[in-house]
Amino acid sequence: MATIRIPGALRSLTAGADEVTVTATTVRGALAELERLHPGVAAKVLNGDAVKPFVKIFVGADDIGGLANLDTPINDRDEIAIVPAIAGG
Amino acid sequence: MKATIVGAGGLGGPLAFGLGAAGLELVIVDPDVVETSNLHRQIQFGPADLGGAKAPLLATAVTKRGGTARGYQTRWTTDDADDLSGDSDLVVDGSDDPDTKFAVADWAVANGKPYVVAAALRFGGNVMVGAPGAGCYRCLFEDPVPAATCAAAGVLGPIVGAIGGVAAALAIGLARGDRSHAGSIYVFDDLRASPDPRVVRFHRRASCPACARTKEVS
């Protein structure tokens, strides 16, 4: 199963879990499964059918924006990272 | 070896003390003055500094510890970048402004300089390392957006010390010529729960305009 790494800002929606495993075959499916398991997460990450501009999603080291976006395929051992931009200093 | 530190606040303090004590000659740039709401996390300042310009005050604090630093009370922009940072060997951003972070990274990429962009918020933060040829800050986040800032969302005081310390250590690595972390972002989700970062290595983005300008320059 693939693993989605949950950023700290979203863990209030995942009961504190820092990772969630999913059985999907694409990033889109993984996020849909995440939403089913933890409702409310998708609204924080997606704007309609696109990833919000201040959020990046990686499969391994690859930004899905340089792949097939939400249709990027994932394998069982893939790690999906959700990385939000922050600017505090 | 010379470094520019953009931002003299919560991240700029540990960056300046760390890099200054390591022997780097510093240029510190920040437009702001010290306010009461800064003191819980910007521990380089005290009540006596309220109302004073952060960058010169921090430069003085570095100098008192035996370092070499100059502070400029101005916003770092690309208009003045060549004057402020043209002779710096690396640039480190610890500002609290998305536009400034992109400007610093774009300028560093265009001028072939290694750089670090650090950010802290609430209980965690990010540190991105850049160097010529590696994926850049704009490859990663593409365009400035109204990202959350400490002023708006708050930050636990010690968090900036931890994130600033990591950024300083990675910057010292760059100063020593270590490019092994370039094109990586260290993500600290919640330092109250875990000190371990998640490290995401990312590739150059083919459509990145900042990297494209580098090709034009070279």
Describe the structure.
The complex is a heterodimer of chains A (89) and B (218). With 89 residues, chain A is of the alpha+beta class. In chain A, 18% of the residues lie in helices and 28% in strands. The model of chain A has no long low-confidence stretch (mean pLDDT 91). Chain B is of the alpha/beta class and 218 residues long. Helices cover 36% and strands 19% of the residues of chain B. Chain B has helices spanning 12-21, 54-64, 78-85, 98-110, 137-141, 150-153, 157-175, 209-217, and strands at residues 2-6, 25-29, 68-72, 90-93, 115-121, 124-130, 184-188, 198-201. The two termini of chain B are 24 Å apart. The mean pLDDT of chain B is 93. Chain A binds chain B through residues 5-9, 11, 18, 53-54, 56, 58, 61-63, 65-66, 81, 83-89, and chain B through 7, 9-12, 94-98, 101, 118-126, 139-143, 145-151, 153, 155, 160, 185, 187, 189-190, 193-194, 198, 200-203, 205-206.
Using a beta-carbon cutoff below 8 angstroms, give the protein chain pair with the largest interface and the number of residues from each chain.
Answer: A-B, 24 and 48 residues
CATH topology of chain B: Rossmann fold
Overall spatial form of chain A: globular
How many β-strands of chain B, per DSSP? 8
Give the uncertain stretches of chain B in residue-range form: none
Strand content of chain B: 15-25%
**CATH architecture term of chain A:** Roll
Total domain modules of chain B = 1
Instruction: Kindly name the structural category of chain A.
Output: alpha+beta
Total helical segments of chain B: 8
Largest sheet of chain A: 5 strands, mixed
CATH class designation of chain B: Alpha Beta
Number of domains of chain A: 1
Q: What is the assembly state of the chains in this entry?
A: heterodimer
